[in-house]
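Reopening this one. Same input as before:
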Amino acid sequence: MDDNKIIELYFCRDETAVKHTSEKYGNCLRALAYGIVKDHQTAEECENDTYLEAWNSIPPHEPRNYLYAFLARITRHISLDCCRKRGRLKRRAYISELSAEMEQCIPAPDDMECRIDDIVLGQAINEFLGTLSEEKEMFLYVATGIWILFQTLHDVFLFLRAK
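Same output, byte for byte:
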């Protein structure tokens, strides 16, 4: 069917306009959407959304001489919006997954049990260090310092290796 006749059907609000548009441009619009979203089902959804958007926007617009370009522009924008939305969902899922995992690992600073545990642990360490001779206590401090140094160097090595 000719583009002018399809536009007339849109202006008359005849639903066969969508059918004729699909028959004439469906494969091209779906291929355009697939080239952007890389998923057949999403491409079909973008194609269907294109027909709805064309239905809603043709009465004010009159793309008689450029119907395919008009539809392709709509398809391109809808497909890009799908990609953006998919990216937002991935980022949000990653952050919420990480947040939930961190909640289990890191105690809240206002948690009274954690504060009490910290105080009791500090007292136990101080009592243990009080029972050691000065030589053993110094050895423990040096060994702890060396362990912290190696742990820091290991973290730096892993960071540099990841780049």
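So the earlier flakiness isn't reproducible anymore. For the record, The two ends are 57 Å apart (CA to CA).
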